[in-house]
Every structure is written in structure tokens, then in C-alpha cells.
Amino acid sequence: MKIDLRRLILFLALASLLLTLTNSLFASFRVQKTSLIDGTLEGNHAYATKIASSVQELLTLAQQQLQYSAKVLSTQLDDAKVVEAEAKRLKQQTDTFNSVVVANDTGLVLATDPDLGLIGRRLNSEGSILARQARAPLISPPFVAQTGRLLIMVSHPIFDNSNVFRGFISGTIYLQEASILSHMLGKHFHKDGSYVYVVDSGRRLISHPDPGRVGDVVENNPAINDVVAGNSGATELTNSQNVQMLAGYAPVPGTGWGVVSQRPRETALAPLSELISKVLLNALPMTIFIVVLIIWSARLISKPLRRLAESAAVIDRPETARDIENISAWYFETAHLKKALFTGVMLMYGKLSKANTAAETDSLTGLANRRAYDAALELWKGNQTSVAIIAIDIDHFKRINDTYGHDAGDVVLKDLALLMKACSRREDLVCRIGGEEFLILVPDAKLDAVSEMAERLRNTVERHVFDHVGHITISLGVAMGASHVSDIDALVKLADKMLYLAKNNGRNRVEVAQHPL
């Protein structure tokens, strides 16, 4: 006995559904796994970049503070009271440094804040030796100071007015005690095992959640090897505790330091099993429902897809968006296809609208450009509407650019555009034709009213104070067309003729063609 069509369809549907479900779960597993790993790597990289930027800003600020103090002391290093006061001021004005030390060119300590018991003693620590040798702004590698503390030293040389090296002023940042660096980085430790640490150019830990590891040199770590080479990125690695980590790293510009932000791989992938279980549980009821109703629902399932396809075929029609919105997409796939197609249509319409607006707008002033101007002229040709044209030109604009620069000239053009809009009506079209030349197209107005508007604009511009430039003037030409102007180009030429007449008659004036064209 041969199998009937109903059982065949059911068998094929069940087999296809089972294979599809198995493939979907496997693909979802791989995609989710890759997404979680990539997302964690990208997040750690962004986080490390942000921390590196903050550390750079901190060190830059520290060097600026030291630079200022070095300038203050350049001529007063022999005045003990001034040196002591400046060291105290620098230490107490911010929390940047744990201590401030001023020493002369031989390393003899002249002042400290707080009192470290070093005044009158000669510094022979690694940081002080480097500062005297470099005679330039310096951030030292970590070293143990004469006070027994592990720290880094930010220093700036002191030169007198003859550019003779007199000594240096330095600020220290403690690495194993409370400091601005530990405060900045200490809050980036998380209960899930994620943490941030900082290394110097010698792969030595400057900051680490485990204070006991600060100062250790880390070898065979690909993230550290790459970041001390000045590279930024993310990678999977196994740390010194044999834990697989997802690490992002970024260098601190100008220091040779690197910031590494990492999270255990196991923690990052923890949500994966739960996600797959939820996918399976959510899909199972719908799967059973589809098996029971597969034949009866074939038409119902295909109907919205068919309508979406029909809409996609005529996507350029104005009513397509409304048609898509009215489609009854009652199940998951069609709902998302409908949403995607509707979003695509609206984006296309939006981009076309933006493109048209941008194509008809002057980028500097925001006024209509020549394309919009030409379109308006074509619209008014043969129209039963009277049209007046005001041609405008800035007097001596080249002199403004030559005297104050093109940036100031651009400011003048922008301000003038605002004044023209303020002096015109909503239905008027204000255009920038090129350079300092403008046109205002005035429909449905009498010549006297247009002339008054032109004079009001001239007077407004003359009284306005433009940034960097002061006062400027403009010349204007006005021409009026009859209610059935056919040769609009001739009207434009007449307005230009009046404009040049205004310039020839002394500028800063309005010339009006008394007889309509």
C-alpha cells in the first residue's frame, strides 16, 4: 500500500523540521559563541582604550603642572622659601602626586612635600639619575625610592634664563599604596574575574588588582608583548594562573605603557547554555503547532510572504509603504521581513529626501543653491504670478578676505544669510548664487514693497556688526516682472544690471528698475 500525500507531506515536513531545528540550534550555538567572544574582546579593547586615554590625560596634566612649577622656579631656585612654597602648592592643589621633590643639578634635595626627611640629602635613585641625565620631561620606570617605596616619578627640568640646567622638580605616584593611579584603576575590578592592569615598556606591572604583583616582569604574554610594541587590539590568551582570558589592550601614547583589560573566557561564555535552552524551549511549541497544521496553514503562511514579495517588486511606488504596513504578518519570519522591508523603504525615502535637500542647499550658508534657484525659475516660467528679483552683492568682499582671512569671510556670509532670511518673507526664496552674490526671488509682491524690503535689508546690514570684521555694506538691484513673465532670464539680467548700477553709483545703495519687464 502506497503512502498517501497527506502522510508524505507530514513525513517530509517532520523530517525537514527536525533537520532545520537541529541545524538552527547548532548554527545558533556557533553564532552566539562567536558573538559572545567577539563582543567581549571588542568590549575589553574599547575599555582598555578608554582607560589608556584616561591615564594619558592624567600624565599629561601631571607634566603640565610640573612644567608650570619649573617655570616659576627657573629664576628663584636659590630662594629656599619660594622653593618650599611652590613644592607645597603643587602637592596640595590636586591629588595628582603622593609627594613633590625639588632637587638641584647635583641631585641635592631642596624641598619636599610632605616632609620625607630628604632635604639636604643627595638623591641617587634610578628616577632622579634619569631626570638629571635626560634634562627633559620624563616619566620614569617603576623603581624603589630612597624612602623604600615602589613608585614612578614624573619630572620636569628647571633651566634658568640662560638656559643652564639648574635642577628638576618631580612628582611621585606610589604603586603599592593609595595614589591617584590606584584610585583610577582600582575600581575596574569585577566579581566575575574581570580586571585591568597596566605595564610599562619593560613589561613590568605598574598596576594590578593584586598589589603583591606590582613591579613583577611578565614574560610570554601575547597581549603585553603586542601592547608594549605600541599596538592596540584584542586576543585570546592563557594567563600566568593558567586561566583562559579574553583580553583587550591599548597603549598609553607617549609613555611606552600599555593597559590590558581581560575577562575569563568561561565567564564570557556562561550565558551560552541558557541562551540555547531558551531558544529550544521557545521553538518547541511552535514546532508542534506547525506539524499539526502544516497542510491547512500552507496558504495562510504563504499569503503574507506573497504580499511582501509583491510589494518588494513595486518598491518605488509611493503607496508601497502603506501597503506593507497593512500586511497582516502574524508569525515571526514575516513579521521581521515586514519590519525589515518597511524600514528599508522608509530609509530609501529618507535618503532620497536628504539627498534632494542637500543637493539644493548651499553647504556654507544653508541657503538655496543654484540648483534650487534654477528649479524655482523653471517653476515660475509662464506662471500667472508676478515675480520680483533682488540681486545682492557684498561690497569689497575681496578686501575682507584679504584683510581678515577666508574664515572671517565665511562668517560674514553666514551672518548675511541670516539677515536676508530675517528681512524676507516665508514664501520668498533666498539663494546664494556664488561667492558673495545672492538673489532673493519674491513672488506676489508689489514693486514698492519689494523696494522697501531691499532698503530695509541694506540698512540692517549696514548697522549690523559682523564678528572679526565690523561693519560692511551691500549693493542691491531690484527688478519686477509682470504677472505673466515668460522670459524670467531677462528679469534676472535686469536685476543684475540694477545691481551693477548700484555699485557704479557708489555702492551701499539700492537701484530699482522702475518699469516692470
Overall body shape: flat
CATH homologous superfamily name of the largest domain?
PAS domain
Look at the helices and sheets and give the structural class: alpha+beta
**How large, in whole angstroms, is the Cα Rg?**
38 Å
What portion of residues is helical?
40-55%
User: Care to count the β-strands?
Assistant: 16
Number of domains: 3
What's the CATH first level of the largest domain? Alpha Beta
- The number of helical runs is 15
The averaged pLDDT comes out at 82
Largest sheet: 6 strands, antiparallel
Low-pLDDT ranges: none
Beta-strand content bin: 15-25%
Describe the structure.
By secondary structure, the protein is of the alpha+beta class. The chain folds into three domains: 41-278, PAS domain (Beta-Lactamase); 297-357; 370-512, Alpha-Beta Plaits, CATH 3.30.70.270. It has 15 helices and 16 strands. The strands form three sheets. Strands 1, 2, 3, 4, 5 and 6 form a six-stranded antiparallel beta sheet that branches. Strands 8-7-11-10-9 form a five-stranded antiparallel beta sheet. A hairpin with a 5-residue loop joins strand 9 (233-238) and strand 10. Helix 1 (5-73) runs antiparallel to helix 2, helix 8 runs parallel beside helix 10 and helix 13 runs antiparallel to helix 14 (447-463). The chain is flat, with a radius of gyration of 38 Å. The protein starts with a helix and ends in a 5-residue tail after the last strand. 33% of the residues are buried. The model has no long low-confidence stretch (mean pLDDT 82).
